[in-house]
Fold this sequence. Notes:
- The protein has 22 helices and 21 strands.
- Strands 3-2-1-7-19 form a five-stranded parallel sheet, with helices on one face. A five-stranded parallel sheet has the order 8-17-9-10-13, with helices on one face. The protein has a four-stranded mixed sheet with strand order 6-5-4-18, with no helix packed on it.
- It has three domains: 27-140 and 370-391, no CATH class; 146-189 and 243-293 and 507-658, FAD/NAD(P)-binding domain (3-Layer(bba) Sandwich), CATH 3.50.50; 302-358 and 421-501, FAD/NAD(P)-binding domain (3-Layer(bba) Sandwich), CATH 3.50.50.60.
- It is of the alpha/beta class.
- Helix 2 (39-50) packs antiparallel against helix 14 (383-392) and helix 13 (371-379) packs across helix 14 (383-392).
- It is globular, with a radius of gyration of 25 Å.
- The longest helix is centred in the last third of the chain and has 21 residues, at 562-582.
Amino acid sequence: MAEPAVKTAPALDDNNALLGVPFDDPDEVIRAAVAEASVPALLMSMVHMTGDLDLLDELPGPAALIAMDLQGAMSEPDKQLVRDRAFEVIRDYRDRGCPPPFVPNTEQFKRMLDVVSAGTVTDEHLDYIAADLRLSDADQCGPPLASTPGQRRAFPVVVIGCGEAGLLAGIKLKEAGLPFTIVEKQSGVGGTWLANRYPGCRVDIASQYYTYSFEPTDYWRHYYAEQPEILQYLRDVAAKYDIVPHVRFDTEVTAATWDAATATWRVAVRGADGTTDELTARALICAVGQFGNPVIPDIKGANRFRGPAFHTADWRDDVDLGGKRVAVIGAGASGFQLVPAIADLTEHVDVYQRTPQWMAPNPMYHETVPDAARWAMRHLPYYARWLRFVSWWPIADALDEQVRIDPDWDNGGLSCNAANHAIREIFIAWMRNFCSDEDLLEKVTPKYPPMGKRTLQDNGTWLLTLQRDDVELITDGIAEITPDGVVTVDGVHRPADVLIWATGFDVNHQLGPLNIRGIDGVELNSAWDDSPYAYLGITVPEFPNFFCMFGPGTNAVNGASIIYNSECQMRYILGCIDMVLAGGHDYAMPRHEVCEEYHRRNQEWLRHMVYSHPAVSSSYYRNSKGELPTLYGFRIFDYWRWTRHPNPDDYELRTRSTLR
C-alpha cells in the first residue's frame, strides 16, 4: 500500500507563536477565529493584548480543565460572553497596530493561572509553567554555560539515532558550539515516525504539546497529528536548523567502547553497503528510544505463511491490501489505529485480540484544525502558548488520584480506587454510545483497572469498525499460523492473504543488538538484561560521558509528551558536559549509590500505582521479574526540576591521572 501523501504544512519561520504576527485582517476573519478558539486560552490572550486583568473578574472563566477538552467545561452562554468581548479586544488591538503584548509580573501571573486552571495551579508550579509559556527563558537557555567556546569545540559528540530526541540533541549541541555527528540507521530523519508509517498512525498526545517548545504550535493540521504530518514537521525542523549535514544516514552503530587511555568513546559504524568505520567522541548520546525493536510473538508456524507478513513498524509499501483478506494480530495501539484505516480497502479483516485496551473518550481525535483556529494561534499574543497549557495541564501530573492503588479498595480487580472506578464507568458509558452488542462489549471491556496499560484515544471509530460485516474480532488464542491463514485454539481456521503483526515493541531491551562497553569492558546490555536503569533515565554508572534520551524509567505514562521529556534530558546532558569541561575533567559518571537510590525510589513509587496492580497481569511495561523499569512514576514537574542542572555531588568527576 502506498504511503499516504503528506498534507501541505506551513514552512517553519522565525515566528515562535509567542508575541503573535501583526495583522490587519478584516472583522470577518477575527470573528471566525474567535468562534473556533479555545475560550480559556483566548481569555488569557486578551489580557496580554490589553494589560487589563479586570477582564478576569468581569468575564467567566473555565470551571475546570478537562483532558481532551480545550474549552474548560464552560457553558455555551459563558463561552459566548468571552467571545463577544474577545472580538472587541482583538479588533481594538488590530486598530492600535498590534503593539507589544503585556507581560505580567509574578502576582499578575498567579492571578491569570488561578483563573485559567480553575484554581489547580499552586505556587510551586509558577516557574515550571512560566518556562513552558515562554514568560521566562529558563527552558530555552538553561543555566549559563561555564565552559569556554574553545573547550566545547574540542569536545566531539556522537549521537545514536535521529528521531525527535536525536534531532533535538543535534540542535542543542550546535547551539552550544559542540561538534557532533548523528548516526541514523534509516534513510532519513524521523526515527519511529519514519519507521511506523502504517495507515492510521497518529500521535496520542495533543499536537500543541507534541511539539518542540521552541518551534511554532500553529503548524499542525490536526489536533492529534497524523504520521505524515509529524514526519514532515521533523524534516522541516531538521532543515531549518541545518542538521542534516551532520547526519550519517543508512548507517548503523554496531558497538561503542570506552577507551580509558584517551578518555574517549570509540564508536563502530556500518553502512548499508557493509563498509565499516570508527568514530571518536568525548561523549556518546544514545537516542534510540524505547520503540525501536519490534516484537513478533513465538507462534507455531509463523514462518510458514506464504503471503506477505510484516510488522506495523516495518510497513510494506509494496503490498496492496485492496480486496484482500487480512489478519491483524494485536489490538493494542497500532492495531487500534490500523484496522479502521484499512477496513474500506480490504475484503475482510480478522483482528486477533489477546487483551482488550481501555479507550478514553476523545471526540477530537481525528479532527482537523480549522484555518480560523490556526489564524488565532499565529496572530494572537501568547494564545498558542496558553492553548498548549490547556492541552497538557489536565493530563500531566493531574492523574495521581486516579492511578494510586487504595489497599482497602476491593472491586475484584476492576479498579484500584474510587476515583479510578469512576473513570471506568465513564469509559464504559462512552463505549455504549457506539455499541449495543453485549457480546462485543464483553470482548472489548478490560478486566483490569483503567490506565493499568496504555490508554487509547477513541472517537468511536474502533467499535464502529468492529461492528462491520467484513470485520471480525477474535479473542480465542492462536494455536498456529498456516501457509494460508490462522488457526485458533478452538480449531477454527480463518484464511488470510496478508498477515500483519501489530504486536508492539520490546521496550525492556531498547538497545537491541547494539553493544556498548564501559569501564573495564562492562557490557551495558548484560548489566541491564531486561531491567534497564539509569540515573534520571539519563546517566549510567561505569559508563563515562554516556547519556540516554528516552532511556530507562522515562516513559511517562501520566500524560507527558516525549518531546517535552527530551528537552528536559537534553538540557541536563548539556549541563553535564559543561560540568566536565568547566571543571577541567575528562569525564563524569553517576555514583552507584545515587543511581541505585533513584531507581529504587522510582520502582517503589510505581509499586503503589495502577501499572503494578495484580489484575494487570501482562503488559509491555513489565519485565520478567514483574518490575516496571521503563516507566517514570513521579510528577513531570519533579522531572523538570531535577533535570534543570546536574548536581556535581551526584557524579564521579575524573581527570586523566585517575582514569582506570
